Amino acid sequence: MKATIYDVAKEAGVSIATVSLVINGKGKISKERREEIRGIMMRMGYKPSMIASALTGKKTYALGLLVPDISNPFFAEIARAVEDEGQRHGYSVFICSTDNKDEKVGHYAALLQQKNVDGVIIGTGIRELSVLDPLLHGGVPIAFLAREFRSVEVPSVVVDDYAGGAAAAEHLIALGHRRLAVLAEQDSISSSRERVRGFKQALEAVGITLDPALVLSSAIKESKASALALMRGEHPPTGIFCCNDLLAIGALQAAKEMGIRIPHDCSIIGFDDTVLASVTDPPLTTIAQPIEQMGQIAVQLLVRKIGRPGERPERIVLRPELSIRQSSMAPQTEIS
Amino acid sequence: MKATIYDVAKEAGVSIATVSLVINGKGKISKERREEIRGIMMRMGYKPSMIASALTGKKTYALGLLVPDISNPFFAEIARAVEDEGQRHGYSVFICSTDNKDEKVGHYAALLQQKNVDGVIIGTGIRELSVLDPLLHGGVPIAFLAREFRSVEVPSVVVDDYAGGAAAAEHLIALGHRRLAVLAEQDSISSSRERVRGFKQALEAVGITLDPALVLSSAIKESKASALALMRGEHPPTGIFCCNDLLAIGALQAAKEMGIRIPHDCSIIGFDDTVLASVTDPPLTTIAQPIEQMGQIAVQLLVRKIGRPGERPERIVLRPELSIRQSSMAPQTEIS
DNA sequence: CTGAAAGCGCTTACAG
DNA sequence: CTGAAAGCGCTTACAG
């Protein structure tokens, strides 16, 4: 039913080798023949099968994108940037949501290598690096996006998470806050660890120590409950740094439930600057990541790696930026 | 470098045919041989190449998902549901953002058929159905999701958009509104047209006619500007029905810019009930779609179609539901 | 119960 | 400038 290279060869009265050459613009085919064969392909609606050509040494022009959850706006925006930049280089992308579970990462790693993808972008947290073995041993190029593992030499784009955490702290300090809390992601997520570290260091730089009891790791579904725990303590914080916008939203909801006014009673800072940040009540002060740029660079690095596997992998660090909205202000109430 | 079926055959001292049989659990292989070969595959880390097996008549186990924009939270949530349900049936999914442009739809249609995907879920607006020809003629099964074209017999899941639009109108009417406006999507989007039609009919049912000047189609990027146009008219509406949550957010922003208080001065209703609706200021009254269910059903229908191409395609209609939050209330101000 | 052979739709040297 | 042939990694009848 679908035309194959044999059909167009027969129609053109040439061998399939010749047709293959014109498809790939190789060899020296007379101009007329070339034009004629092109015309026949058009007329027959012939498109070479990518799986057949992939089997004969060419690429599959497919990429995998591993993220914790495509429905999380941050990763959805990343995915769009990756998709667009991928298209620009001729690649399609498979979405792979891992829920930050090694088990799912491993599953997708095996699957993607079985599917012979040309490369995979890894933007998900991983505990045990060995779950990537199917990719690493299978010779599938990878690039890290917004996550990284210094132990392995792989191209990566990250935002300076440490600096971002520090910027959040400095903003809060400048506003006059002293008693601060942190809502972090799981510990397996390197970016989250760095943000907390930067936040903590910046506090210590001005002589404030972060109360360990006020640093909570939380899954996104439990962000509200975690924030409630933070706010219900004996000495509630006057400001909370949340390691992503979604966690910040949980904090916002917790505050609303407890009748705590944001930012009057407590300041909240997020991280990411997704669409969400501009629509919350109140709009969220957050540390903005250059999302589109990160996605673009990730595919550029990966594509380069695919092209020249031997080259030394690059590591690109982008600067996050404080975006001030209405969820932060100077502390108003004196909390005993 | 990667092990092939030949490597394991040699290692096991059998023919590749035998190995193939144990891979596929076919034929009658003695239990010991089967176990032994399984062990060897494990040890060598052998996984059959999906592209090779796809070339020999089997499926590629890849699906395409066409949506307007994966970074739009509604479609991101759809994508997650499609990905998960796809995995459950053994399929991976390619993301394809079309920006509702026929040109991109056509591009992806051709690309997906070249990649030999087993099926495509279409959740994007299309003006000229012929852009799907590469799929239709290529014999690639498709299913419509949240969009549809009655002219072609294809399995589809939709929400009763007409009823949803009517529900929005009824809510507003019950609240006491009489002068209403609509912020719609582009006309090529069937779901949007239906929502507007339902809204309008419900108004007419109680003797209110919708002023055509107060019905605007708007791209998402221009939603704020369009809402401003609506609100700046001589007789501004006391309520605006927006055909999706993102448009409603544009309206919220326009109101804020003009100093119009929501819901006191104007009620706003969205459609979709994505995460966004619960975090806006104020939280959005909206018509909720069963997003996860829609994604699941779409792949179930598609998978069924792939399995039994001859069967009569099903059409599943789900009910949307009014979700009341704080962006709607009885009209307060008397606007001349 | 298992192997030899053809074939899927291409690409790539190698001849001529 | 163009064709015959081998090969990519599998699957599937067909023999035996």
TrEMBL record, chains A, B:
Matching Gene3D superfamilies: 3.40.50.2300, lambda repressor-like DNA-binding domains (1.10.260.40)
Protein name: LacI family transcriptional regulator
Keyword DNA-binding: yes
Pfam families to which the protein is assigned, alphabetical: LacI, Peripla_BP_3
HTH lacI-type domain residues: 3-57
Keyword Cytoplasm part of the UniProt annotation: no
PANTHER family cross-referenced by the UniProt entry: HTH-TYPE TRANSCRIPTIONAL REGULATOR DEGA (PTHR30146:SF147), LACI-RELATED TRANSCRIPTIONAL REPRESSOR (PTHR30146)
Entry keywords, A to Z: DNA-binding, Transcription, Transcription regulation
